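Fold this sequence, please.
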Amino acid sequence: MKTFISNYNFKNAISVLLLCFINNTIVGQSDSLKITRTKQDTTQLSLNMDAVYNRPFLKYGKIPIAIGGYAEANTEYKVTDGITDGFAFQMRRMTLFLSSSVHRKIKFLSELEFEGGTKEINIEFAALDIQFHHLINFRGGIIMNPIGSFNQNHDGPKWEFIDRPISATQLLPATFSNVGFGFFGKTYKPNYVWSYEIYLTNGFNDQIIGNSENKTFLPATKFDPNRFEESFNGEPISTIKTSFRIKKVGELGVSYMGGVYNKFEVDGIKLDKKRRADVFAIDFNAVLPKISTTINTEFVWTLVDVPDTYTQQYGKKQYGGFIDIVQPILQKTFFGFERSSLNFAIRAEYVDWNVGTFNETGGNIADDIFAIVPGLSLRLTTQTVIRFNYRYEWRHDILGNPSVRTAALQFGVSSYF
């Protein structure tokens, strides 16, 4: 589970922040105090790891704090095997960014997310970056584990789809973050850029196999309310990623995250052997020249050491992934919005939570889902998108019975602010 903040304490914190802001404004009023929006540097080749920096921020004069954020809202009409609950209107999330340059080589960045209105208030990122060299940067705090690409680059306005990928939310723990430390760096050449990240953090716990889903389910590891304060078993997890982008070709990323997930010892008494969960991911994104087609894909493999005392419904191997293809079909001025773009988008995604066969019969263990999502999106600006999606999915239970089919019409908007 992410860090939760009570509404009372949060309101007090916001009040203090606003008072400080007003006070600084009154005391330091001058012609130089202007609200400005930071611009992204598009002259360099950017990577998924740069997403935490490549966000629009508002800055007021010489005040060292910049603020930004994004919001997502939508409506959905869903039917499962002919049964529907009708329309649902959703405010999925509102996220606030706060950043500060302590020094030209020291930066603090944070991400605070409100989900389901104020049903959850979560700190997803809050880390201090210290640059010693372009290849050696230290990062400490609440870190977004760089497994795959979506976990780092998940902001709603960047995507043409209302739902996040299944493999990123139900195979991997989406926006998975932990307290820890590590290093990152990159090097630029005229036509390519290479980067690395390596972190040690708190991490996994036994809810991976002890959860309400009754299967091996990595996202359940986020449900530990103490993971920002202590390690469940005293064993850190390691996350390593390297990425390589070639100009006019695309970015390829390879990442790994793994560690012990069970409590193997208490007060010096050995309870079990150390059982590991290991995740491997590969991601690729590119924009095809001339026709401007965007391709974004990610595939994930997980290996979990499940005790033999658990039934076969708990998978030891899992895999899944998605591929997005976005094609601009019309670029012009819409309703006074210059350089707007009407896009056709399609996503195909698949997750298998239990790769293998039954010991008794040799038959395939199913427990999988496949979905196809075509859609249209209107990007009024690069930072605001109106989206219409049609989602159709097939889900099989562990025995491979005839699939449960779900269709959904979705309409929504997402924008930075």
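The radius of gyration is 23 Å. The domain at 3-416 is CATH 2.40.160.10 (Porin).
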